[in-house]
């Protein structure tokens, strides 16, 4: 019985790792991962070191992902903030991507706090 439980834990750990790898393979996941890397390096080593981090995606690719999220809502977003018509899940993803784009450009609250308060 004990071996069966350990096997199940091992298999679930491998499945979780493969899902995390898959999530980081898409452009959205890479944008978020780049931003988290920039912020963590800024916390540890400062702004100069954060600017030297090699990023997997550029800002234009991340902006295209942002446009994909907004495109789901079509004309509903004309002359208003797109987040006002989004579902809560899309709004959270949209906001997280917006913060990631700011961090990739070395600005925004999370990045600036990481640099200032390190």
From TrEMBL:
It comes from the Bacteria. Residues 1-23 form the signal peptide. Keywords: Signal. This is Uncharacterized protein.
């Amino acid at each position: 019985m004990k071996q069966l439980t350990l096997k199940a834990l091992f298999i679930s750990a491998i499945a979780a790792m493969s899902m995390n790898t898959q999530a980081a393979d898409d452009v959205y996941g890479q944008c978020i991962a780049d931003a988290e890397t920039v912020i963590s390096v800024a916390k540890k080593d400062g702004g100069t070191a954060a600017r030297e981090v090699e990023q997997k995606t550029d800002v234009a690719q991340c902006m295209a992902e942002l446009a994909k999220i907004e495109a789901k809502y079509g004309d509903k977003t004309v002359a208003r903030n797109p987040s006002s018509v989004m579902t809560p899940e899309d709004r959270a993803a949209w906001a997280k991507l917006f913060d990631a784009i700011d961090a990739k450009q070395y600005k925004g609250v999370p990045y600036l706090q990481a640099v200032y308060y390190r």
